[in-house]
Every structure is written in structure tokens, then in C-alpha cells.
Amino acid sequence: MLGDYIKKYLEKKEVPLLKKAEKRGREEVCRYSSNALFFHSVTLIIILFSSRLGYGKEPIFEYLFNGTGKNAISTGSDKTPLVFTISGGVNSDLHSERGLGVSGSWYDRAFDNYSWYEPPGLGGFASHEKINSLLPDLQSLTIQGWFKTDRTPSSYVGQPGTHNEAMLIMGPFILSMVQSNNIALRFRVGSKGETYQARTILNEWVFFAVTYDKTKPADNLSCYVGTKKDPVTLVSTHTLDVDFRDDLIFGVGALRAGYGMFYGFLDNIRLYGSKNDGTGVLSLEELEKIRVNDLEPFDPGPLELDDELKNRFMLPRQKWAN
Fold first, then answer.
1. Residue 44, H or E segment
2. pLDDT of residue 36
3. Which of 22, 114, 162, 210 has the smallest C-beta neighbourhood within 10 Å, fewest atoms?
């Protein structure tokens, strides 16, 4: 009798404990599964973000302009940021608002030179003060990016206080819009250069790319254009013999306020190059892959997450309970 009583007593105590242990076990499994799912999701985001940039060749610099602040980070091999400057040498934030980058995604921003440049105002620009050591020795290069504007250069370049070109990029080489009622880009080093038509498309994003191969004696400069709707096409091929200058600072916009900055948005500026051979030249197929990837819905990678999201990702596990 006593044995039966003790057995029933223990069963009353053990069953709830076992059930509680089972519940705790299930909670631990769920907690582990949730944590595993979270970390796998973060890993997937990083992989997907990295795949957006995986064109087979790493750019020397790549400015996506997706952050905020008074400089733009580079996600290329050279990490030197672009420093934003407006009139009077004042550093300022020239990132656009969210959703105004080429992909149109919520987190996608661009370099906005509308905000500070209303001709003949002084305008803004972004400079890279160490680029001199990177470019002059290149044997081949590709400069690629996007622009968007609501006016042709004839409406503002050459006006008082501005140069006779709208400078998209200025440094050892210059990429600019010439004074015209058309959208025409000019690639030049000093007075030597070539101009190519980029179609007069206003209020839409235009893809541009210029490749230059010093190792080829002829047909060594190629110019490409695309849009968000149209694939990249080869517009023209030229023969050019130049050595890159090292006496200027690379700048997206221009070197100094008032020199003839581009009026509009710039986005996803990249430079590829090689000091040894012609491998710094991207093919039409590679450029088209870049265009397509740039238009994919943009989800922020670790570098682009808002501070609020960053803080949440860094919270200890016990604080997630609420």
C-alpha cells in the first residue's frame, strides 16, 4: 500500500515536471530555430548584396551614394571616400532623399547636385584627394555611371560664373557635357578628346560608360549608352593617344564651385582599370550586366542599414523577448 501511494505521489510530481521540461525544450528549439533563421537571413542578405557587385571584375572605386553624411563611401578596392563640398568650401550632405537613386528602391539614394546649384550659383561637387596616385599609370580603364537631368547644358553652361562644360567627372581625365541643346558626353585629357551623343533624354536615368585601352594602337576608345528601359549599346569607337594627367583632383561634379558642374543626379559611379594590360576594359556584355543589376530592387546590405536597424541587429538576445 505504501509503495502504491509513493508511486502515485511521484507520478503527480514528475508528470508536470516532464511536461514543463518538454515545453522548455520546445521553446529552446524554437528559440534556436529563430536565431538560426535570423543569422541565415542576415547571411543571405550579405550574399545577395555581394552578388549585386559581382561582375567578375572589382572596380577601383565604386560610389553608390546610398548613405548619408558629408562624404560618400567607396565599395571598390580603393576605400577613399568622396568629400562633398558646396560654395565657400563648406562640407555638406549632397546625398539625395531615399528612393531617388537609379533603382527607385526605398533605400536607394543618389548624388544630388540639384539642391545646391541653380545657375549661376556656385554649386556643389565631390572630390577624391588621393586619386592622383591611382590613375596616371593605368594602361586601360572603364568609367561607368548613371546621370539624370531635367535640362540640356545650353541652358546653364557658359553662363557667368561657370565653365563652358558641365563636368560630370574631372581629374586626370574629364567626362563632361558640352554646351549644346543635346545631351552629348565628351571624354578628354587636356584638349585631346572625343564627343559622343548620349541621346537627349530628360528626366530619365541614362547609363553611360567609356572604355580606354592604351595598349591598342587604334580603335581604343569606346563609348556606350543605355537607359532603364534600353540595353547598353556601343555608340561610337575612336582612336585616342593620351597620357592621364596627375595634376588635378578627381571629382564627381567638378573641382571647385562654379567651374561648370553637372546639374542633376549622378549615381553608381565606378572606375575599373589595369596598370599592366587591357583587362581594365569591360565588354558590352559586362556593362549590360551592370545595368541590369543596378535596376534590381535594392535591399540594404550591412553598410546601408539605418542606425535603428543596426541597433536592433546588435541587441542582446534577451532584449528580443519583448
1. helix 2-52
2. 44
3. 22
